[in-house]
Amino acid sequence: METITSKCVLLNAQATDKTAAIRLAGQLLVEAGYIEPGYVDSLLKREEVANTLLGATVAIPHGMVDDRHLIRRTGVAVVQIRNGVSWKDGEPARLIVAIAAQSDEHIALLRRLTRLMQRPESIEMLVETDDPELIVSALADVPAAPPFPAPVALPWPADAEASWALDYPNGLHARPATRWTEVAKRFSSEIRIVKGLEFADAKALTGLLSLGATRGDTLNVAARGNDARRAVDAMLEVMRTLSSEEQADAERARRNAMAARRQAPDWLPEHASQTLYGLGASPGLAIGQLVHHAAQRFDIQDTPGDVIADGEALEAAVLKVRDALSVLEAETRSRLGANEAAIFSAHRELLSDAELLRDAMVQILHGHGPAWSWQHVIKARVEKLQSLADPLLAARATDLRDVGERVLGTLLGVTRQRMVLNAPSILVAEDLTPSDTLQLDMRFIVGLAISGGGPTSHTAILARTLGLPAIVAAGSALLAAPEGSKAVIDGSVGAVYLDVAGADLDRAEAVIAAQAAARAALRESRHQPAETTDGHRVEIAANVANAKQAAAAIEAGAEGVGLMRTEFLFLERDTAPDEDEQYRIYREMTEVMAGRPLIIRTLDIGGDKQVPYLNLPAEENPFLGVRGARLLLTRQDLLYTQLRALYRAAKHGPIKIMFPMVTHTVEIEALRTHCARARAQVDGPVVPIGIMVEVPAVAVMADRFAPLVDFFSIGTNDLTQYTLAIDRQHPDLAAQADSLHPAVLTLIASTVRAAKASGTWVGVCGGLAGDPLGARILTGLGVDELSMSAQDVASVKAALRSESLAAMQTLAERAVAASTPEAVRAL
Ligand code: PEP
Ligand code: MG
């Protein structure tokens, strides 16, 4: 059906006011034979009862339903008014798309228009074009043909721009995207995030999410307006600041999942009618009756009423839900903390997206009821999110559905029913929205079993925070499990056992009690030293990035800092920190440590951590490229700034300097010379100089490296990836990058042997140190110190206190002699 032709396009028209503009459009429709002249008055009448300004300077005048008999056939006319004409509350319209629709044939046109409006430069082009065919092709209902030139072909003169490679392991999901919008909204400039041919308004959450940006995507931040430069800088800052948080979250989730896969269950039943496996999302064992959580479903009828009243009702419902979310956010913050509360600010942000409401309003304008319109728009967005290639982003569709349903409930006056429980229960659900999770009756819910979802879903995060054992991705068989059956859930290994009874239940209860007691005991004993039963003491330290983390690590039981990763000081900004800034940071570290051991590692950039402002050449294999000490030796500006700052800080408390990624003995000689020179420049004290042992060459020749350094610290993360030739971040292989591999243990053993022979102190700061079994083997091998993330300190100390050094030495010997990591674990 032909609804628009170039005859109905009037370019560069002049109109003194809205009425004149509508009359011009009406005239085109009359001349083309689409309407009777009387319908022009109907177009004007509509303006008295509704605002037809869609946004982005596009207006869609259309007549009253009662006057449809004046339409001869469906048609559209476009009047282009480049200077604009005041439409509503001083807001101008520049593209007047007058619609005469006999039924709903024009919905496709509206969809096209609103889609174009999401790309303001597309509208800009239609307003400026001298070619009526361009307007025809942009609006014509030709679904198969790309309606428009690719947006990238359209120049958008930004006043400032910059590009950044997204490095969030889980892509751009709702939490970081919300923080982006919060920053963007502080500026008056229009800010766009461009990804390839697509872009989104940085102030609109749903737009950002629909970019489907995943790790590695290059994003361009462009801004136009008075504060464009500052806006771009601030956007870059927040984007980068979130990198380390996002990476730490993903690393924790990955480690938990890997640990769960390897863990032998604390409890297994003799009899269970069925066992269902999923992924462990929150550890621990729980016993309860199965209770199915019925998702609230709304049966929506399309009941249009008065357009204005319907629009107002929808807007009021959205505002009400936003207020309710603010309350929920504040409650969650005080109950669980800012991180968990952020889920609800993300939800509120989803509702602040003007496009959602506008799209729903368009549906209302075209004769649909408010609930139907809202549901229609939400459903389309949810489907779009679900269709994105990245499952992590697709999972965020749950958030949008959650807020969408809240609004529907409010609009329809339906309150969420609370489940009535009276006995310990394991909640079974297809998926739980964060608000469902938080509104659970915690007196009775003891565990969560979810058939869908993933370990990084908000539900999983909340369950961990609430200390509620949970499994996810258990499959649809879970939903068929009978309500009320007695079940046990093991959130550590990711299993649900159905119909457990008798002695099995008694044993499970004993294990639960023991787990609770162990958690309490660990916490109690965290400040006790890691002294083996035969009196051998190992120093326990923490890996940190800043003074705040160092203080938290000490509170968690750490006796020192075995690795301060200084690259984090460089990662979250636009320029390198200067000497004074670094000096202040290192000095603050010495103050927090108050005389405790502190090893500060020099910049380890390269590999997985890139810093755009250093303008380093892109490398095919960055893990094998100019990384760590290799970089510092070629960038002495960076090296000297850092060394001088370190030597100045060393006047305030003990510091050891450590160099990463050393491969050759000559590098140590060169680094020592630079250290001596920097020290002399600031008149600093002598400090111990050591290296990370993370390249197999150094471990193999440790006897020749040990005499050259004051200490070694073994980086098992990199030593493992380089020994096994497995990228430590590889999505499929990373689980095999197992530091308990006997090849890695053999290299560690040779390093420790060489260190002992020359009286060189040796620690371990890679992930193996924080694994209780790894820690026992390393102690058996003879290391002096173990440095790990703060949350592992208490359990590693307890593991070392539980056994004798002699037993750990035997364990270590057998581990080195084993053939596989599985065999090592079996010991
Ligand atoms: C290591 O490689 O084990 C290490 C501790 O350093 P990073 O993880 O920072 O590379
Ligand atoms: Mg390393």
TrEMBL record:
Write out the entry's keywords from A to Z.
Cytoplasm, Kinase, Magnesium, Metal-binding, Phosphoprotein, Phosphotransferase system, Sugar transport, Transferase, Transport
Its annotated compartments are: Cytoplasm
The coenzyme or cofactor needed here is: Mg(2+)
Per its record, what are the GO molecular function terms? phosphoenolpyruvate-protein phosphotransferase activity
> In what residue span(s) does the PTS EIIA type-2 domain sit?
2-142
Catalysed transformations (reactions):
L-histidyl-[protein] + phosphoenolpyruvate = N(pros)-phospho-L-histidyl-[protein] + pyruvate
Task: Return the PROSITE patterns for the record.
Answer: PEP_ENZYMES_2, PEP_ENZYMES_PHOS_SITE, PTS_EIIA_TYPE_2, PTS_EIIA_TYPE_2_HIS, PTS_HPR_DOM, PTS_HPR_HIS
**Domain HPr: residue ranges:** 159-251
Q: Which Pfam families match?
A: PEP-utilisers_N (PF05524), PEP-utilizers (PF00391), PEP-utilizers_C (PF02896), PTS-HPr (PF00381), PTS_EIIA_2 (PF00359)
Q: What is its main location?
A: cytoplasm
Query: Under which EC number(s) is this enzyme classified?
Result: 2.7.3.9
Which family is it part of?
Answer: Belongs to the PEP-utilizing enzyme family.
Q: Give the protein's recorded name.
A: phosphoenolpyruvate--protein phosphotransferase
